[in-house]
Write a structure and sequence with these properties.
The strands form three sheets. Strands 7, 8, 9, 10, 11, 12 and 13 form a seven-stranded mixed beta sheet that branches. Strands 2-1-6-5-4-3 form a six-stranded antiparallel beta sheet, with helices on both faces. By secondary structure, the protein is of the alpha/beta class. About 5% of the residues have low confidence. It has 25 helices and 18 strands. Strand 10 and strand 11 form a beta hairpin.
C-alpha cells in the first residue's frame, strides 16, 4: 500500500520533478564551469610565477657575473668607471633577491634556497670589495694572487649550484601546473558532454510527463463534472432547504425542498430582493419584515456565521418557523465570494418544545414547593425534638430506677436517629434550593484528617477493627476550603466505612495527585475498607437518594441512603470529584479529588493587641477557671493578674459546677480534658442544669477540626487552643464581657533578649506568657521539675502494658506541662503519638522507641530551660 502511494505521488509530481532536476543540472554545470575556470586561472598563475622565478634566477646569475667581470677589469686596467657600475649592480642584485624571496614565499624549501643564494651573493660582493681593496693598497700582484687563491671561484660554483636547484624545482612545478591544466580542460569537456546528453533526456522526459499531466487534467475535469451532477442530485434529494447566493445577492441555487418550504411554485427568483418581495419573512422577536439588506443571509456576506437562527414565514395565512444555519463561502484566498443557508421547518418541534417547557416549569415549581415545605417541616420538627432530647438528657442525670432509666436511654437513641435523619433531609433541601453557601477558610489538612480520626477511632475500636490514616510528606501546610463541609464529607464516607466493616481495617490516605500548578494543587483522599463491599450493578446508583447497597443493608446496619447523596453534592460544590471501586464481600474504595488553593504562609486569626485601651472594669469582673494542670493554673493566674482581673481556679468540671452554685462569675475559662468531670459535661450542666448564660471560653490542646464546632454546639461562646497566647486570651475575654470604658492600658510586655543557642525551648513563647517575671518562671521550673519524672514514668508504664487508653490520657496531661515551659515542638511530637493512639491498636503499636527518644528530649529541654532561666 505504501509503495503504491509512493508511485502515485511520483507520477503526480513527475513533470515538476523533471523541470526541477533540469534546473539543478544547469546550476551544477554553471558551478562546475566556474570552478574549472578558477582552477585553470590558478594553474596559469602558478606557471607565470614559475617563469618569473626562472627569469629572476637567470638575471641574478648574470648580474653577479657582471659584477665579477667589472672587478677583474678594474684590476687589469685600473679603470675606475668599472667600479662605479658595480654599485648599481649591487642594488640590482639585492632587488632581484627580494623579488625571488617574494615569488617563492609559498614554498618553505625554496625560501631556504633563495636565502642561501642571497647569502652566497653577499659573500661574493664582499670578496669583490676585498679584491678591490687589496689592489688599491698592495698592487696588481697581490690582487691577482688573491683571485688565484680560488675563493671567488668556489663562491661562484656554490651560487651556480643553488640557482640550478631553484631552477630545477621550478621547472618541475611548471610541468605539474601544465599537467593539472590539461586534466582540468579534459574534465570540463567530459562534463559538458555528459550534461548535454543528460539535459536532452530530461527534456524528453519533461515533454512526456507534461503530456500525461494534460491527459490527467482532462480526466479530472470530467470527474469533477460528474461529481457536480451527483452533488446537485444529492442537494435536490435532501429534505432541508439549501440556498446559495453570490456577493451581488443573486440566488445561484435553491433546491426543490427549499422552494417547497418557501411556497415558491414558479421559477426561482433571480435575487434576494425579488425573493423578499414575493414571500413574507419576519423576525421571531419583534415580527418586523425582512428585506434583502437585513436578511440574515446578507449578513453572511460580511463574514457572519449563524447557527440555529429562527425566522418566521407567513404562508397562506399560516405562521411557519424556520431554523437556519448560515455561513459565508470563501475562495482559496480566503475572500468571501458568497453565502449559503441550510434551513428546515421546525414548526412542529417548536410547538412540542413549548409544551415540554410548560410541563418542566410546572415540575420545577412543584419541586421548589416540595423543598421549601421539607425545609420548613424539618425546622418545625427539630424544635420539639431538641426539647425532647434535652429533657431526656436531664432525666438521665436523675439516675432513675429501672425500667424507667432504660426507657429514657431508648428514647435518647431513637431521638438522635430521628434528628440525624431530619438533618440529612434538611441538607438535601438546602442543596436543592441552592442555600448551601461555602465558608472558605485557611485549613490544615493534617489537623482536619486528625479530627476525623479522633471522632471515628473510638467507634472502630469498639467494633474491633483498625482505623488508620496515611499522610505522606509533600502535603501543603494549609489550603483554602470550607473545612466544615469537607469534614462533613469525610465523616460521612469514613463513618460508612467503619459501619459496614466488621473485621479488618479502614484506611484513609491523603496525597497530592501531581505537583502544584501556580497556587493550585489537586489533593486525593482515598478511603479503603475491608467491609461488605457493593455489588457492581449498584455502584452507579449508590449515590442516588434513598438507595443502599441491598435491602438487607437497611435491616442490618440501618440508615436512610441519604448520606452519600449529600456527600456527592457537597463534593461538587467544592469543585471536587467522587468515585468508588468495590468488590462484593471484599471491601470498597472511595476516591475524592479536590483542586485546593495552596496558602504559602499559615494564616492565623489576628487578635486585638492588649496594649489597646481596655473597655472593662477590672474591679467588677470575676473569672472562674477550670484547669487540672498546676502549671497552666499558674500561667492563667499570672496572665490575669497582670491586667488586674481576679480569678478563681478549680481543678475539674465538678468543682466548677459547685463554685457556680455558690458564687456569681462573669466569665468561665473551661479546659476540655479534665478528671472527675470533663469540660464537655460541665458545659452541658451549666447550660441545662444550672440554666446559666455566663460566657464560656473553652481551652484544649487538641486543636482539631470539628472540636471547635462541637464546643460551640453544646453551649460554649468561644474557643482557644493551647498553647494559648496572652493577647489571644485577653482579647477574647474583653470581647465576650465588654463593660464600661476606663482610661488606662494593659501593662506593656517586657522587652527580653533571647539567649542564642536554644534548641528545645521556645524562648519567645516563654517570654510572652510570663512577661519576663523571674518569680513566675522559677515557680514553673520548680513545679515541672517535681512532677515531670513521675509523668514520664506513668507514660512508660502504660506503653509497656499496652494500655493505650491510659497512655493517651497520660500523654495529653503531660503535653500541657511541656507547653508551660516552652517545649512546644516536643509537645507537638507527643501530640502526634496521641492522635495515632486514637486510630486503633495496630496503628499505635510500637510507640515505645519513640517515647524513649522523646523522654531524652524532655530531659535535655528541661536542662536547657534551667540554663536559659537560672534561679
Amino acid at each position: 500500500m505504501q509503495m503504491s502511494s509512493f508511485v502515485k505521488l511520483v507520477r503526480r509530481w513527475s513533470g515538476v520533478i523533471s523541470i526541477a532536476f533540469g534546473m539543478i543540472l544547469v546550476f551544477i554545470s554553471l558551478y562546475f564551469s566556474y570552478t574549472s575556470l578558477e582552477e585553470l586561472a590558478s594553474q596559469n598563475n602558478g606557471v607565470n610565477n614559475t617563469i618569473s622565478v626562472l627569469n629572476q634566477t637567470a638575471n641574478f646569475a648574470l648580474k653577479t657575473k657582471d659584477l665579477q667581470s667589472n672587478v677583474r677589469g678594474y684590476i687589469v686596467t685600473g679603470n675606475t668607471e668599472l667600479l662605479t657600475s658595480n654599485k648599481s649592480l649591487k642594488s640590482q642584485i639585492t632587488a632581484i633577491g627580494d623579488t625571488l624571496y617574494n615569488l617563492v614565499s609559498h614554498s618553505p624549501d625554496q625560501i631556504a634556497r633563495v636565502n642561501e643564494v642571497r647569502e652566497i651573493t653577499s659573500q661574493i660582493i664582499a670578496f669583490t670589495e676585498l679584491s678591490t681593496d687589496v689592489y688599491d693598497q698592495y698592487g696588481l700582484d697581490s690582487a691577482a694572487a688573491l683571485i688565484r687563491g680560488g675563493a671567488g671561484i668556489t663562491l661562484f660554483k656554490r651560487l651556480g649550484t643553488k640557482i640550478s636547484e631553484i631552477q630545477e624545482i621550478e621547472g618541475r612545478r611548471m610541468g605539474y601546473h601544465k599537467l593539472l591544466s590539461s586534466q582540468s580542460r579534459h574534465h570540463t569537456i567530459l562534463f559538458m558532454i555528459g550534461t548535454g546528453i543528460t539535459g536532452f533526456f530530461i527534456t524528453i522526459l519533461s515533454i512526456v510527463f507534461l503530456s500525461r499531466d494534460q491527459r490527467r487534467q482532462r480526466a479530472l475535469k470530467r470527474e469533477i463534472y460528474r461529481k457536480e451532477r451527483m452533488l446537485n442530485q444529492y442537494i435536490e434529494a435532501i429534505p432541508d432547504g439549501v440556498m446559495v447566493i453570490n456577493n451581488q445577492k443573486e440566488i445561484l441555487m435553491l433546491n426543490g425542498s427549499g422552494k417547497k418550504m418557501l411556497g415558491i411554485t414558479e421559477d426561482t427568483p433571480p435575487d434576494l430582493e425579488a425573493l423578499t418581495t414575493r414571500i413574507t419573512l419576519t423576525d421571531v422577536n419583534d415580527n418586523h419584515r425582512y428585506n434583502s439588506n437585513n436578511l440574515s443571509l446578507s449578513a453572511a456576506l460580511n463574514g457572519a456565521e449563524l447557527v440555529g437562527k429562527k425566522t418566521h414565514l407567513v404562508r397562506n395565512g399560516e405562521l411557519i418557523v424556520f431554523e437556519s444555519n448560515i455561513r459565508p463561502i470563501c475562495d482559496y484566498n480566503g475572500e468571501i465570494i458568497g453565502a449559503i443557508s441550510v434551513f428546515r421547518d421546525i414548526t412542529d418541534s417548536e410547538v412540542y418544545s413549548k409544551s415540554l417547557q410548560t410541563e418542566r416549569d410546572n415540575a420545577e415549581r412543584s419541586a421548589v414547593i416540595k423543598d421549601v415545605f421539607l425545609a420548613n417541616i424539618s425546622h418545625e420538627i427539630r424544635t420539639p425534638l431538641n426539647a425532647i432530647l434535652g429533657f431526656t438528657y436531664l432525666l438521665e442525670n436523675e439516675h432513675l430506677a429501672a425500667p424507667a432509666g432504660e426507657y429514657i436511654s431508648y428514647i435518647q437513641v431513637a431521638g438522635k436517629n430521628l434528628l440525624s435523619l431530619i438533618n440529612d433531609l434538611l441538607d438535601i433541601s438546602k442543596i436543592e434550593v441552592g442555600e448551601v453557601h461555602l465558608d472558605m477558610q485557611p485549613t490544615s489538612l493534617i489537623e482536619l484528617v486528625d479530627s476525623v480520626a479522633i471522632l471515628l477511632s473510638q467507634k472502630a475500636s469498639q467494633k474491633g477493627i483498625v482505623y488508620q490514616q496515611i499522610l505522606p510528606e509533600g502535603l501543603p501546610a494549609q489550603v483554602l476550603t470550607d473545612k466544615l463541609r469537607l469534614t462533613q464529607v469525610l465523616l460521612n464516607i469514613c463513618g460508612n466505612a467503619v459501619k459496614f466493616t466488621e473485621k479488618g481495617s479502614v484506611t484513609m490516605r491523603v496525597e497530592p495527585v501531581a505537583p502544584a500548578v501556580g497556587s493550585l494543587q489537586t489533593i486525593r483522599f482515598t478511603i479503603t475498607d475491608t467491609g461488605i463491599g457493593i455489588a457492581k450493578e449498584k455502584t452507579t446508583k449508590i449515590f442516588d437518594r434513598f438507595v443502599q447497597a441491598s435491602e438487607s443493608t437497611t435491616r442490618e446496619f440501618g440508615g436512610t441512603g441519604l448520606g452519600l447523596s449529600i456527600a456527592r453534592s457537597l463534593v461538587t460544590l467544592l469543585n471536587g470529584t467522587l468515585s468508588l471501586e468495590s468488590t462484593l464481600g471484599k471491601g470498597t474504595q472511595f476516591i475524592l479529588e479536590f483542586p485546593f488553593e495552596i496558602l504559602d504562609v499559615p494564616v492565623r486569626k489576628e487578635f486585638q493587641d492588649h496594649t489597646q485601651p481596655i473597655h472593662i472594669r477590672p474591679d467588677s469582673l470575676r473569672i472562674l477557671a477550670a484547669e487540672d494542670n498546676l502549671l497552666n493554673q499558674k500561667l492563667l493566674a499570672a496572665v490575669l493578674k497582670r491586667i488586674n482581673l481576679p480569678v478563681v481556679i478549680v481543678n475539674n468540671g465538678q468543682e466548677a459546677l459547685e463554685a457556680l452554685e455558690k458564687e456569681h462569675f462573669d466569665l468561665i475559662l473551661m479546659d476540655v480534658q479534665m478528671p472527675v468531670m470533663d469540660g464537655y459535661t460541665a458545659i452541658r450542666n451549666i447550660r441545662n442544669k444550672l440554666q446559666l448564660t455566663t460566657p464560656i471560653i473553652t481551652m484544649t490542646a487538641h486543636a482539631m477540626i470539628g472540636e471547635k464546632e462541637e464546643c460551640l454546639r453544646i453551649g460554649a461562646n468561644s474557643y482557644i487552643s493551647k498553647p494559648f497566647k496572652e493577647c489571644e486570651l485577653v482579647s477574647e475575654i474583653f470581647r465576650l464581657t465588654g463593660g464600661d470604658e476606663v482610661p488606662g492600658r494593659a501593662p506593656e510586655p517586657a522587652q527580653i533578649d533571647e539567649v542564642p543557642g536554644s534548641m528545645y525551648v521556645d524562648q519567645k513563647y516563654v517570654n510572652e506568657i510570663t512577661n519576663g517575671d523571674s518569680e513566675l518562671i522559677g515557680e514553673l521550673r520548680s513545679i515541672f521539675g517535681q512532677d515531670y519524672r513521675q509523668q514520664l514514668e506513668n507514660i512508660g508504664q502504660a506503653a509497656a502494658e499496652k494500655d493505650y487508653a491510659v497512655l493517651k490520657k497520660a500523654i495529653h496531661k503531660f503535653r500541657s506541662s511541656l507547653m508551660s515551659i516552652g517545649l512546644i515542638e516536643t509537645a507537638a511530637a507527643y501530640q502526634k503519638i496521641e492522635n495515632e493512639l486514637g486510630t486503633g491498636p495496630v496503628a499505635a503499636a510500637g510507640p515505645a522507641e519513640r517515647l524513649s527518644n522523646l523522654e531524652k528530649e524532655v530531659n535535655k529541654g528541661f536542662e536547657e530551660f534551667g540554663r536559659l532561666y537560672p534561679s
